[in-house]
Amino acid sequence: xxxxxxxxxxxxSPLARDRDAGPMQRQxxxxxxxxxxxxxxxPGSRLPGSRALAEALAISRNTVTAAYEHLAAEGxxxxxxxxxxxxxxxxxxxxxxxxxxxxxPATARRLAAIKPGTPFAEPDAALRPxxxxxxxxxxxxxxxxxxRAIRTASPATLGYGNPLGEPRLRAAIARHLAIARxxxxxxxxxxxxEGAQEAISLCVRLLSNPGETGWIEDPGYRGVKAAMRAGDMxxxxxxxxxxxxxxxxxxxxxxxxxLIYTTPSHQYPGGSVLSxxxxxxxxxxxxxxxxxxxxxxxDSEFRHTGEPIxxxxxxxxxxxxxxxxxxxxxxxxxxxxxxxxxxxxLMAAVxxxxxxxxxxxxxxxxxxxxxxxxxxQFGRHLGRxxxxxxxxxxxLRLALTRHLKVPHEIDGGYCGLHLTVRLPPRFDDRRIAAExxxxxxxxxxxxxxxxxxxxxxxxxxxGYGNTSAxxxxxxxxxxxxxxxxxxxxxx
Length: 491
Ligand SMILES: Cc1ncc(COP(=O)(O)O)c(C=O)c1O
What we know:
By secondary structure, the protein is α/β, with parallel strands linked by helices. The protein is 38% helix and 13% strand. The chain contains 15 helices and 14 strands. The chain has helices spanning 7-11, 24-38, 50-57, 61-74, 139-152, 167-181, 195-207, 222-230, 249-254, 276-289, 344-357, 363-374, 377-403, 429-437, 472-485; strands at residues 77-80, 83-86, 190-193, 213-218, 234-241, 244-245, 259-262, 292-296, 321-326, 338-341, 409-411, 418-422, 444-445, 459-463. Helix 7 packs parallel to helix 8 (222-230). It starts with 6 loop residues before the first helix and ends in a 6-residue tail after the last helix. The site of pyridoxal-5'-phosphate (PLP) has 13 residues, from helix 7.
């Protein structure tokens, strides 16, 4: 049996008598616990008798017994006939076995496949893609909607809600989608998610097994790559051209997909619209192969020319399409509200596991969002933003034509919140983007959206959603200088 330890070494420092140090009992308990965890009090050794310790520390014996009882309740020590003995505990201080490279914590292998994104740029960095006009958001109206939701909801709303989302919001979304996007669905097919990104991840989790193939657009949205890689999917990039996703018969034969991710109404970031011929062919082939299409309809409420382009989901009855939408562009990104519309039969098959996987939450925000849609404020806000973005897009096109003094082509379509400018390969797009950040400008390099970049995947994705039109002229002049400075010598 180990000897009773030296008291000074055991406690490391004397107990403090001032009030801020806390009660004696807690201090003593804390010091003894530390001594046990650090190995200064070895397993099997005995704590000093309570009377002796009380005398040595000039504290009451009750204080010591209370500290010992606390340690015993937590399992650090065990009273026996001869006093109090330290329990046999595993040592928590042994060095941890490192991962493959020494010192690296072992993580899931799939993480290595998730490539770092572009450096973080503040949402107000000019020309940052994907950010809506934050200062034009009707924050006072939204505050009132939130306030109404909190005032009128019962206390039960503070508890767990329906894991698939508030029924009122699911119904409001179903009605809105039928009118605005031609989506055919009932409220019970709608699942509320934390934005499009979580909705995409849910599709991967619900519909794919590790190693199965997922098609993505190349160049395309980076978020889907992270979701598929995190789901251990085998990712196959499919080129996009001016008619959208260009899947060949060979692609279907050689890499039959389980999931196909596409942005058919406004390809991200190239801007093309998936032609009707390709939409119908994609649906027909997906049916034949038992594949599911994930339709990411992230910004098509903002179409700037002609009639809106309807969603693929509503093109034919029972299309094998999972429709995804988000309030990140139509409202604001930090709201973290998006939705997934599942085909009715699929919903019947996944509802039970989905209800176990999700917890719902943000119930007041969901109710306020339903109120916003039902009261017509959402529709009016969309109308105002559509006009604003249309004007901004026109102004940006004009500024590019006038002031971008390097050869370029403007792409990106007449929709949404961004334009894509293609540059000849001799201009290093990543260098331009990196330099631009130093000037508080955050265009994205087009090549960073490609898995297998072609020379034509070079240029800049310019977000105009959150940058006011008066700034375009000086900003484009600056980009023009940066582009010239990033021209590869000898190319
Ligand atoms: C193609 C695409 N999908 C979805 C989103 C939105 O994602 P979330 O709703 O998670 O904010 C974006 C945002 O930039 C996007 O570009």
